[in-house]
Specification:
homodimer; alpha/beta; UDP-N-acetylmuramoyl-L-alanine:D-glutamate ligase; nine-stranded mixed β-sheet; four-stranded mixed β-sheet
């Protein structure tokens, strides 16, 4: 087991300017795991309802993902319904039914506890803390969050950040968390709370990494159409953590490569609904797009 | 004469979250010229009123800028008053007094007509066309525009675009011009109108260049504070055209370097009001920041 991820598994109903998908497989842990599975062995910690079909579990296992941490409970699986308009950076939530996710109490199987890489996807910071109590000296703990927790559980979130080395957050939420319009100043404030490495996700504008005094700007892939942005952030985190686990190298230069790998995985993910694209691509596709990212940003010295 | 620029010279009154500047020197031709003057010999085509002090002309000439094309007319110089809130990508115009600029009829001095590089800053497309009638076989013609002309003079603007090789435009205006939310599709539509090279300015997110089938993504410099964004786009264009004229090389790789040079100049410009920063920096400062841009974006192959 290289990476443990804790997060949601959900059925999503999504409408975008390009079409509609009904009750398709989604959730932060699912997107993360499928993306990371190209690079490393992932164990999922999540909860599903009795309505969750075995075929999904089987699909995850066929991708080499360990599903021993997915608990099946009485009730229905978490459901999310959302819409994107032409501004695909902005999801409009239409319905949320937490169902079994409401009483999610993440419990790590014994075999997960020594995993060197841990990713706490965007869930209640109290649950993120519960996971941290169950892991034994991981090499790298990373987490994500959202405005809902920044506003609703600020002190719990700060507790998490004290114990996290790598923090991944959206641009607007970084500014909100820090109460600071300047992104560079906001980054410094956030890093004062604990994380040594901060990655700010900017949607179609790429990502910025702050690592000590170093800053790295990664572009996004200029896609003709972003078909469905759902799961982009978690696919990004999956590629990032997957590549770090695969290389087991936390140097500045390797984290930069991992961020580009995360951007590669996110760029594939948004090309279709649900996990369709991540299920279809090969390692060759990933390598080819990484090369395209290189060409996209390369310029010579003067 | 390496570059001819036609545009505005203005007195700006600007308020930002960081302070206020009253009746300071501005205008697209001014920002462009001062930025380009670090690389090449620029001739300005513009109009000012009798109130325009000789000290400004002297300052421009001390920077090596040819001011023979600045016409002094009865009346007052163009004045613009604007405000920026914390979203520094968005200028709020409070007052515009065109004054002598209202009847601007650009006339190129004889010595300007054979300039190999021509930049048509954001002015009435009819005036841009008048300038093109006065130049003799330039090597590269570039232009900028804005929503005001896209909406008010669409057919004249299309006429300009047929005769322009390099088109520089803001992201929102690119989408508006093309009537297309996908930036990649919008780029293709715009290039179908004439320009071989399209540079889309994205403010704090950098710039995207489309050149044939190649795409280049340039980052913006992550400044702690953008003090005053006025003139950022024109400083960008000045660095870009200045570097192209200096190197006289229109290869893909050299245009990429020129775009980064433009980004370097824009990043300096926004660090202070008016032209204060561009007047203070040295060639060493420019080289050092170019190197920082390189470090900001570099990542290794996998």
């Amino acid at each position: 087991m290289d990476i443990v991820v804790v997060g949601s598994v959900a059925f999503d109903t999504v409408e975008t300017p390009f079409g509609k998908a009904d009750e398709v497989l989604g959730g932060s842990a699912t997107y993360f795991s499928l993306s990371a599975s190209f690079f490393a062995k992932v164990g999922m910690v999540a909860v599903v309802g009795k309505d969750f079909p075995d075929e999904h579990i089987k699909m995850l296992e066929e991708k080499g993902i360990d599903t021993a941490g997915i608990e099946k409970k009485d009730g229905s699986t978490f459901r999310w319904k959302g819409r994107y308009d032409y501004d695909l950076n902005q999801a409009h939530t239409l319905e949320t039914h937490l169902n079994v996710f409401e009483h999610f109490n993440p419990t790590l199987p014994e075999s997960y506890r020594k995993a060197p890489f841990v990713f706490l996807a965007n869930i209640d910071p109290e649950l993120q803390l519960k996971v941290l109590e169950q892991v034994e000296a991981p090499r790298l703990v990373a987490c994500d969050t959202m405005n809902f927790w920044i506003e609703g559980k600020p002190s719990e979130l700060r507790e998490v950040l004290k114990r996290v080395e790598l923090f991944v957050i959206n641009e607007a939420e970084a500014r909100e968390f820090a109460g600071e319009p300047s992104l560079v100043k906001a980054a410094r404030k956030i890093m004062d709370c604990g994380p040594r490495i901060l990655i700010i996700k900017r949607g179609e504008y790429g990502a910025l990494m702050f690592n000590g005094s170093s800053v790295f700007s990664a572009p996004a892939y200029p896609l003709e159409d972003v078909f469905d942005p759902t799961g982009a952030g978690d696919s990004f985190a999956g590629g990032l953590m997957g590549y770090l686990a695969y290389t087991n190298d936390l140097s500045e230069q390797n984290i930069r490569k991992a961020i580009v790998m995360g951007s590669v995985m996110a760029s594939f993910n948004v090309e279709d609904f649900s996990l369709n694209r991540l299920r279809a691509i090969s390692c060759d596709d990933i390598r080819a797009r990484y090369t395209e990212f290189k060409q996209l940003t390369y310029f010579e010295d003067v």
